[in-house]
Design a protein that fits this description.
The chain is α/β, with parallel strands linked by helices. The chain has 16 helices and nine strands. The relative contact order is 0.12. Pfam families: AAA_16, Cdc6_lid. This is AAA family ATPase. InterPro entries: AAA_16, Cdc6_lid, ORC1/CDC6, P-loop_NTPase.
Length: 390
């Protein structure tokens, strides 16, 4: 933890101790500057990226592993650090009499949850490379791509682009990504990041290396939780045995573990406690569905879909007894300016994407097919709090 974070933890606006010092640091969708216990993965990535320290581009690569193993956390932290290198001119000695100054390649991180179109893809890459703002309207995709080629033509050593969350329902297809990569300038290499095994994705055919990320071991996950708690909570707010309990339940998934910590903190704060209890942890674990949809996926949905979900998580059991009842309740809300037909369509779309689930109600002696209700596949408390904070 850096000095700024330590000072922030001790700041008090009202003179009273508080359980929560920084909710963002506890969030399962936040990546901190120094991810805990991922040293071997970091070294593996540095081995792959080693050519950049000689001013050259690495080959294309595919980084893969199940949800919650730290792929995004490590790559974003690493790219943030490496991106400082282009501003540092270094001298490489070629012979005893010759020296050449050079700069390292630039590094760009893209999230396919946010860049879901060809235009958005090239816009995000270009916007990360230039100081001036790139217009989002009144410009075509071909113009963007031409501008990107012009920007990189002979003016830079090159760019390494990390493309995260490939293969998810709302992201570009693998074949579309291959075409997008092919449209990049020749002095761009890419690191694709997804959950599929390398043998199951088309992207691996265009890479020189595939890097697998294993789930966290239990003690590593405890370290992740305690690191986040040391930043986001008051001192000694969570005991080691409670962090161990969360880690054992999460089975190597840092997203689920951090979601449990986040929800348990909410319960403790609501109860006015200065530390987390086993009751808070058990309530948090009980709330999280297995399997759990990443809150990053939920919070990357369009604003109108998120607004529907925000209403959904506040409905009582009767209002969620069927899709029709849920549609009526959400459509009648003052905070959702959507027709009932649009609400129902959104619910079906999100059920198809796995964000919510249609659960068949138990038949009660009547004829015909029993109605289905909608259940979120993410923890409602965590989504509600993160949505409201944003």
């Amino acid at each position: 933890m850096d000095i700024e974070a330590r000072i922030k933890r001790r700041q008090r606006h009202d003179g009273e101790p508080r359980l929560v010092q920084d909710y963002e640091s506890l969030s399962p969708v936040t990546h901190i500057d120094e991810p805990a216990d991922r040293g071997p993965l970091l070294e593996r990535l540095l081995d792959h990226l080693d050519p950049v320290f000689d001013g050259k581009l690495p080959a294309n690569a595919y980084l893969y592993g199940p949800s919650g193993v730290g792929k995004s956390a490590v790559v974003t932290a690493l790219f943030n650090q490496l991106n400082r290198l282009p501003t540092e001119t270094r001298t490489v000695i070629h012979t005893t009499t010759r020296a050449q100054a050079m700069t390292s390649p630039s590094f760009v991180y893209l999230d396919t949850r946010q860049t879901t179109s060809e235009f958005a893809f090239y816009h995000a890459v270009l916007d990360a490379l230039v100081e001036e703002s790139v217009p989002e309207h009144g410009i075509g995709t071909e113009t963007l791509r031409a501008r990107l080629h012009e920007e990189l033509d002979g003016s830079r050593t090159g760019v390494v682009v990390a493309v995260d969350h490939v293969g998810e329902p709302r992201s570009a297809s693998e074949s579309d990504l291959v075409e997008l990569f092919a449209g990049l300038p020749s002095n761009v290499s890419w690191l694709a990041m997804g959950r599929k095994h390398a043998a199951e994705t088309e992207l691996a055919e265009y890479t020189a290396e595939s890097i697998r990320v294993e789930p966290y071991q239990q003690q590593m996950l405890v370290d992740v939780l305690m690191t986040r708690a040391s930043i986001g909570l008051a001192q000694q707010a969570i005991e080691h045995d409670l962090a161990n309990e969360i880690a054992a339940w999460a089975s190597g998934n840092a997203h689920d573990a951090l979601a449990a910590l986040f929800i348990a903190t909410h319960h403790a704060e609501e109860a006015g406690r200065s530390s987390l209890t086993r009751e808070d942890v058990e309530a948090a674990i009980e709330e999280i569905p297995i399997p759990c949809v990443s809150l990053g996926i939920v919070l990357s949905l369009p604003a109108n879909r998120q607004a529907v979900l925000r209403e959904l998580v506040d409905l009582d059991e009767e209002e969620r007894s069927s899709v029709t009842a849920t549609t009526a309740a959400i459509g009648g809300s003052e905070s959702v300016d959507l027709s009932p037909g649009t609400v129902k369509r959104f619910l079906y779309e999100m059920a198809e994407a796995g964000v919510v689930e249609r659960v068949q109600a138990t038949a009660q002696g009547g004829q015909g097919r029993p109605p289905s209700r909608v259940e979120p596949r993410f923890p409602p408390t965590a989504f509600r709090r993160l949505y409201d904070l944003s």
